[in-house]
Fold:
Amino acid sequence: MKRVITFGTFDVFHIGHLLILERAASLGDHLVVGVSTDALNFSKKSRLPIYPEDERITLIRALRCVDEAFYEESLEAKADYVRQYGADVLVMGDDWEGRFDFLKDLCEVVYLPRTPSISTTALIEKIRR
Ligand code: CTP
Structure:
């Protein structure tokens, strides 16, 4: 069985999120998703996500293409998560191109193209305006 892992905040769930998860799932037999915690987001962006972590992970777990989800507590722990969940493939959006190549000894690393013209940040801006 080929196990795939991917990570993200998945705040204000949108089509770009669904498409990358479906494409990640299609690369193996089992998809595990690391959903970043509110604290991790706050430390990274100095703001909390719109949806709290328990709602974000509940939405992710409800998706047909997702087999398992856990809280990602540290951006530096990717290697530990890959080992812990026995992942054969790490999938990241191509906004991260090259940044996780150091994990190639541990698993296959695949960067998938982002869906154009949509992001959580752009949606929040649009709603604000
Ligand atoms: N993603 C994607 N296409 C988009 C937006 C996101 O494929 N248009 C992917 C990212 O590459 C990542 C995953 O969805 O692998 C989760 O991304 P996340 O950062 O949570 O979403 P964004 O919409 O990019 O959020 P933000 O604008 O806050 O950065």
Q: What stands out?
A: Residues 94 and 111 are 5 Å apart (CA to CA).
